[in-house]
Please model this.
Amino acid sequence: MVFTQQLVNGLMLGSIYISVAVAFTLTIGILNFLNFTIPALYMLAGMVGWSVSYYGLPFGLSEPLGWAPSLLVGITCSVLASLLVERFTYRYFKIKHGDSTEHAIPLVSSLGFLLIFEYAILGAHGSETRGFHTPFTDLNWRFADLVISIPQVTSLILSLCIVVGLSFMLKKTRIGRALRATAESPDTATLMGVEVRKIVPIVFVLTGLLCGLAGSIFAVNYSEVSPYMGDHVGTKAIAAMVIGGLGSVWGAIAGGLIVGISETFSIHFFGASSAQITVWGLLLVLLIFRPNGLFGHNAIGKGKF
Amino acid sequence: MLKLENVDVRYGPVHAVKSVSLEVDEAQIVAVVGANGAGKSSLLRAVAGAEKINSGNISFDGRPVNRLAAPERVKQGITLVPEGRQIFVSMTVEENLLMGAYTQDQVQIRSGIEAIFDRFPNLASRRHSLASVLSGGEQQMLAIGRAMIARPRLMMLDEPSLGLSPILVNQLFELILELNRQGISILLVEQNTKMALQAAERGYVLELGAVRMEGKASDLAADKSLAEAYLGDE
Ligand SMILES: Nc1ncnc2c1ncn2[C@@H]1O[C@H](COP(=O)(O)OP(=O)(O)O)[C@@H](O)[C@H]1O
Ligand SMILES: [Mg+2]
Model:
């Protein structure tokens, strides 16, 4: 029973990692860019959502809002912040300096944005963990000893739907094909008439949406948010992406669930501080046997999604 | 229809294209030949808008296109079949054609795609396979089909015969002539100098980025000094 309960908890935790891992994998796959701001986008949705539900919109624009509209404001902030990152890290440096920037400058500047967003929130709201309450916080299904939280199941299904929908979009729509073509070869995509400069912001909007949704799902499921919530998720989601295979949407799902499950089991048997050791140990061992992760393609930078 | 005046392309210190002037008339086939590194690909990429020009002027239908980005030039009717085919190997055959039709009206492209599949039955039978499983010849057909579906008025081909068997090379040149008969102007870059000059009306010889000779293709093919330098062992 304990085993099943941990498995359920692990799956629920994994559902949070899935969306964030997919956000990482999209920017790496399409833009060859490890976007370090992702954990902050995740945190922004939660913290802004909490702030709006506690204080209302800034400048006295409204009374405190309900949980759902608050989270919508939070997600909107994540998307806007993501576009800000695109404008000032990716686009500015790419267009100004071309490919000579390699990956270091966008990477370092996205790390800069991570810290700026995090400390802006710390400055505004302090470092405390805040409670985030919804009407169905304690809605559970019980089977004998097994407790399954209904919001968590809903979130798992929601996460899977988002990722499957995204996968469908990449496969079946004109924009999706343009994104995949750009992922494989920006140069050839341009020759086909794809305006790569307009494709790039789409990736960042998707990134903001995925992170915002994941942050909101966390807030609803665990009834709390904090300025540091992104740090925990960021490293795990990167591990999930690598375990699943860089640039593979299905790999991100598998990786997210595997990381979630190994984390809960590790904490159960070896205590809280063991989680990172287990997850990253697993990752390193897996990479010895499968250098491309579970679903990865052998040529990074070619043929993803 | 296409006119280049004193076009320069530089990559930092490398001066790849030096003050090249070139013209392609309506429904004409023009060949550009020259050794490896002569700047042929750079020239085509500059016309396609994939490479910036440092000076000079490129006009299409009498209008300058210098300032247009590559996607805009595709919409104007300029397409490039790039060197090495550059098929999207992570996509299916049909998805590659859909990418070729990216700038086209999405409602009408279905019939365009069926027309390409009628023209190339080998591709039709693999339409849902990944393009990476195609043979070299089939990939070249796909690359040209992908360019055809954009309804170009000027099609540029960068060494399309590279790596193809003699039979396939013959088929390729037949296809190029057929496209030309349909009214598409062709700007053809080839290492296979002999065949290119046979197919073309006019030709240019590029050497170290500059035009060394130009004229009627048959005159160039007959030129003694050129034969020694480039056509020797073809
Ligand atoms: N992206 C690039 N960056 C730097 N140099 C380049 C680039 N592309 C081509 N060159 C150089 O420009 C010159 C012309 O190359 P290219 O146009 O490919 O010639 P060709 O197609 O006739 O073989 C060569 O010296 C080549 O090394
Ligand atoms: Mg070349």
Remarks:
- Chain A touches chain B through 22 residues (CB under 8 Å).
- Chain A is about 70% helix and 5% strand.
- The two ends of chain A are 38 Å apart (CA to CA).
